[in-house]
Prior knowledge:
39% strand; 2 domains; branched-chain amino acid biosynthesis; Alpha-Beta Plaits; 4 helices; AHAS_ACT; 26% helix; acetolactate synthase activity; 186 residues; alpha+beta; 9 strands
Amino acid sequence: MSALKIKKGSSSHSAYDLRDPFGEKLESHTLAVLVDNEAGVLARVIGLFSGRGYNIESLTVAEVDHEGHRSRITVVTTGTAPVIEQIKAQLGRLVPVHDVHDLTVEGPSVERELALFKVAGTGEKRVEALRLADIFRANVVDSTLESFVFEITGTPEKIDAFADLMRPLGLVDVARTGVAALARGT
């Protein structure tokens, strides 16, 4: 019998619900995974998450060593402390994985995300959108008489705050890259 129970009346029907019935706190962790850059590796890593019901909040992948044929997968995931430890252990056992770092616990790190926001509006809403974009240091990368496309870079919290302010001003669409992160220092 599973130790995880679904609350009665809960909107979630997953047997893999990560809410801990014993009140254990959910944590968000940023994992950096160095893998072979070959076909099917990303599918295997993502399969580990989906097969066990782990959620991925953000995912970025790019080749970081062309000569060594290595890519870096940055995953932001949420779970209880034991679940996060289990994820790291299971990732470390995958054959194409060379290294797994939990940037959340290994010390200070830098996280950034790029986002594009399409905002439609005229008159005062248009002026207010431009004023807020200036405050957030967002760049206008496209403009028509009816809309703007803003480009913004920052922490996920900054991106979320900008989105919240743009919604009432005519936010039409959002594209986000996901988190890219590196440990600080040497």
